[in-house]
Amino acid sequence: MAEQGLVGYQMSHTWNHDLTNLSTSKHESCTVPLTAFMDDSHWINDSTPKLQTTLTITTSFNTLNSIQTNNDKAVLLSTKAAKRAQDCEPITLAVDSEIITITPLPLNDSTRILGIWLTAGKSNQHIIKHIREEIISCCALLKHKIITDK
What we know:
This protein has 2 helices and 8 strands; from the N terminus they run ββββαββββα.
C-alpha cells in the first residue's frame, strides 16, 4: 500500500552527482509509512484520509495479533495546526467501531519521540525551552549540595 501512495509520506531529493557537469542530476524518492521501535509506533501521513487508512490497517493488524493500543497516549503533529492550544481544532477519526478524537499539538509545542524533541513549527524555541528547564532542574538539585575537597 505504501508503494501505491495510499499511506505514508512521500520524501524525495534531487542532487547533482557530478559537480563538473551541473546539467546531470539524480532523483530519489521513497514512501515512509511508519517508524517503530519496541512499543512506540509513529504513523507518518500527509493527509487525514491517509491517516484514517493507516489507522484502520493498524487496528486490524493489532486485533489479529491481540495487541492493545492506548489511544489516550496518541499525539498528533500537523503543519496546519494553530499556534495556540485554544485555537487548535480537534479531528475525529473512525477506526473500526471506535471513534477517536484527537487535537493536534500547537505549532510551538513539542513532543518527544525516541528521545528526540519534535515540533511541527519551524521554530527552535522548544529546544531553548527544554534547555532552560534542564538548567533550572540541575541548579535546583545542586543548590543545597555541599562542596567538598574529595
